[in-house]
Amino acid sequence: MVTKNIDIFNISLVVISLIIAIKIPFELFLFSYAILGPLHYLTEITWLHKKNYFFSANKKWSIIFILLTILISIYPVINFFDFRMSQSIENLIKFVGKQDSVFLLTGILFAISLIFFKKIQSLILAFLFSVLISFILIIYLPNLFLFIGVFLPTLIHVYIFTLLFILYGALKSKSRYGIYLSIILLAVPFIIFYIPIDTINYQPSAKTQDAFISNNLSVVSAFITSMLNKLQNGKFYLLSEIGIRIQIFIAFAYTYHYLNWFSKTSIIGWKKSISKESAFVILLIWIVSIGLYLYDYKTGLIALFFLGFLHILLEFPLNIMTIKEILLLTKYKK
Question: For helices 241-263 and 2-23, what crossing angle results, to 10°?
């Protein structure tokens, strides 16, 4: 009964998130990312730690994901603060900053190893193999790495993996409404593609547009537009029909991703993993992060950059485990 009620509630969250995303796609994304995002990062990281990050191995191996996140974060942070350094160090940091796709692929390949291996020797070899494979692939499949760098930490994380979590939960609990929720969530991109969009009367404020342009928040939209061959004279326009449709989907995906997490405290049990001391620290960091976003959106983005990527990488083993369990459940049913 609890699962059924939560699934029904989540169906309503999908509908509400979609309606608001259609009405104010740019504003909704900025709000969700700044307000709901940090609280999600903090609570999920705490929960993952309590769950041993869903490793088969010792949780100390999480240091690999922390190091990879540092390598991903170091260039944006240093570039923002404009630290003075020697040319050689600056060139090295720029080089490292361009390898985010390598670090992401390394992380997800190593996550597969952590699900299946426990021995130290096996995991060391698996990590070295993950690094080697990642660097080889970037040479021979550069387009794949561009795809990974753009989509893995964004839409794959907030939409695809959320859909897989819901599907896994529905199959495991044999919830009919969970299946309905999965189907509705899967249908959302098609709904957005076909519904009429009012591009004349909708006009986000100059401040909202500036937040997107100055913080490069339209990178994913521009990349999808290019993939669909919908650029206008080789350029991406934020308020074009395709630009608005893509932003509706992005705003919906992020908003529902966060709401889905907060709606499932009784099923996932993440609330129980947070002690009073942890809750105080989480609340304090959350309030400070909101203050930073209100002060200056870019400052908020940089301040939360490491934390945002850390929760993505630490979730990789859970993502792999979810895919594995779905395959096992569907195989068992056959």
Answer: 150
Tell me the pLDDT tens digit for each residue of 38-74. 999 999 999 999 999 998 888 899 999 999 999 999 9
The whole-number average pLDDT for the span 253-280 is 86
Residue pLDDT, tens place only, 215-230: 999 999 999 999 999 9
Domain membership of residue 305 as a residue range = 2-333
Model pTM greater than 0.85? yes
Do 118 and 326 touch, CB atoms closer than 8 A?
A: no
Residue 117 contacts residue 56 (beta carbons within 8 Å): yes
